[in-house]
Amino acid sequence: MRVGILGYGEAGPVFARQALASGAEVWAFDILLNDPALATACRARMAEDGIGCAASATDLAARSDLILSTVTAANALAAAESLGALTGKSLIDLNSVGPATKMQIADRTDQRGGTFTAGVAMDTVPQKGARVPLLLSGPKAEAATKQLNALGLCARNVGRDYGASAQIKLVRSIFIKGFEAVFAEAMDIATPLGVWEEVCASLEQTFPGMDWARLVPYHIGRVEQHGRRRAQEMLECADMIEAAGLDPDLTQAIARKHAKVAAR
């Protein structure tokens, strides 16, 4: 099998190395390759992993039978469109976008002659590695699940509706990103007041077994590093909530907090 990885940031290399280890021919392309200041480092990273470097997104599609998109929520649709003709190709989008965006990518893929499956990673890929749970959905999700599992990944089919996997992921994300936003907000005031140690001790009594002294700073650090991308994911959540006729105010506030923490 020839596997293409579109996007070589956090998740892409994990899946690329696993596919290579399973015996697949693996190629990758990242938009950083279009930036002269960053292209050399990006190529070196792929070469170090033993992954072929495609000249463009269309070149990646031409060299691949199965393409995994691991870009960002903000770039998922544009990245899929950049692949060009997809006749006989299978595209699996693993980005944290809402059901509406997954449907748009499905339409574009169909127009270009390809087969589309919507997917999501249900945990942090760099931490979980190739065993991160992947949920897939869409009419061809069962076949795609078998393909990914044959590559040594951990995929599960959750239905024929393109939006099914995204719905599960985004509802989970409201909890995870919401907790992180609360941690950041609380620490913003606890630190200057000098009350964090007392608050931490109280939390440990209320929620025994949770290492709050480690947990809170760790998650705030993740927001500082990835807040822009996570804010976009929360806006996808807000769109999904609004489409259901519900109030997305809290989710939009979570998005704003992540963006502000990342920007400071």
Describe the structure.
It is a single chain. The chain has helices spanning 11-21, 36-49, 57-63, 76-81, 99-111, 125-128, 141-150, 164-193, 196-206, 212-243, 249-263, and strands spanning 2-6, 25-29, 52-53, 66-69, 90-93, 115-121, 133-137, 154-157. It has 264 residues and is α/β, with parallel strands linked by helices. The chain has an eight-stranded mixed sheet, with helices on both faces. Helix 10 packs across helix 11. The longest helix has 32 residues, at 212-243. The protein starts with a strand and ends with a helix.
β-strand percent reads 5-15%
Class computed from helices, strands and strand pairing: alpha/beta
Rounded mean pLDDT is: 96
State the shape. globular
How do the SSEs run, as a string of H and E? EHEHEHEHEHEHEHEHHHH
List the helices and strands and how they pair.
Layout: E1 2-6, H1 11-21, E2 25-29, H2 36-49, E3 52-53, H3 57-63, E4 66-69, H4 76-81, E5 90-93, H5 99-111, E6 115-121, H6 125-128, E7 133-137, H7 141-150, E8 154-157, H8 164-193, H9 196-206, H10 212-243, H11 249-263
Parallel strand pairs: 1-2, 1-4, 2-3, 4-5, 5-6, 7-8
Antiparallel strand pairs: 6-7
Helix pairs in contact: 8-10, 8-11, 10-11
Summarize, please.
This protein is an alpha/beta fold. 58% of the residues lie in helices and 14% in strands. It has helices at residues 11-21, 36-49, 57-63, 76-81, 99-111, 125-128, 141-150, 164-193, 196-206, 212-243, 249-263; strands at residues 2-6, 25-29, 52-53, 66-69, 90-93, 115-121, 133-137, 154-157.
